Amino acid sequence: MNLREAAVQGTFYPADRDRLRQDIDRFLMRDPPALGNSPKVLIAPHAGYVYSGATAAAAYRCLRQSAESIERVVVLGPAHRVYLQGMALPGVAAFSTPLGDIPLDLECMASVSELPGVSVDEEAHRLEHSIEVQLPFLQAVLGGFSLVPIVVGHCDPRGVGAVIDAVWGGRETLLVISTDLSHFHSYNEARQLDTITCERILAKDNTLVGEDACGAQALNGLMSAAHCQQLRVQLLDMCNSGDSAGSRERVVGYGAFILY
């Protein structure tokens, strides 16, 4: 099988299957909030699990009631390792994590590849962590599913929104936007900046920049998608690395949201 091997196992999350599953199960232990409807979109952070795993879990535990109906997950995350103009699909058939291999939805990807601004770029995916760190959570909560991974570079939000609308589907499709918030401010400054950014996300602002959230391009695309306009946005958790496992001198912010 043409496979994208896990690139950040052992650094962002455990490489050992049993330990990884134990960590995720521990993150997911709390009960989800009461929701009127099943989430259609999750917004979750992508740092190492010791820093942002608990915040990401706040979003993933909300899938418990709808897990059996979800067959396909579209994950959009920013490019950290390469300069990317537009959006990139991988050229493989599956992604691997310590919890197993995830088949890609090749038919959906072929359709997406024909949209403006989308290319197949193996290098954009090879070492990218923003999508990979979401996958063990998805495997733990959903079990089996097919994946459409999209790395988002410098893009017009309308182009990203068009891709999101094209893959929207019904109850069988979940979308995940992978993003952290502010980077490398002091603890108190980060709290202030991230509070403002979270308020803008709740208002469906589509003019965020990288200083607000590293996944700003994907977020702006989501908020520009026609299907998104009918959804409600709910903030589940906000913290930073100073709250979880790091110094408070230079922190990274994290937020978890659902749209339903």
Overall average pLDDT: 96
The secondary structure category is alpha/beta
Provide the succession of SSEs: EHEHEEEEHEHHHEHEEHHEHE
Number of alpha- plus pi-helical segments: 10
Q: What is the CATH domain class?
A: Alpha Beta
Please give the radius of gyration in angstroms: 17 Å
According to CATH, the homologous superfamily is LigB-like
CATH architecture: 3-Layer(aba) Sandwich
**Percent helix:** 25-40%
- Low-pLDDT parts are none
Question: What is the total domain count?
Answer: 1
Find the CATH topology: Protocatechuate 4,5-dioxygenase, Chain B
Separation of the first and last Cα atoms: 36 Å
Strands, total number:
12
What characterizes the major β-sheet? 9 strands, mixed
The coarse silhouette is: globular
Strand content: 15-25%
Outline the structure in words.
The chain is of the alpha/beta class and 260 residues long. The chain has one domain: 3-Layer(aba) Sandwich (Protocatechuate 4,5-dioxygenase, Chain B), CATH 3.40.830. It has ten helices and twelve strands. The chain has helices at 17-27, 49-60, 106-112, 122-126, 129-132, 135-142, 157-167, 187-202, 216-224, 241-244, and strands spanning 3-4, 41-44, 72-78, 87-89, 94-97, 100-103, 118-120, 146-152, 173-178, 183-185, 233-240, 251-259. Strands 2, 3, 4, 7, 8, 9, 10, 11 and 12 form a nine-stranded mixed sheet that branches. The protein has a three-stranded mixed sheet with strand order 1-5-6, with helices on one face. Helix 7 packs across helix 9 (216-224). The radius of gyration is 17 Å and the shape is globular. The model has no long low-confidence stretch (mean pLDDT 96).
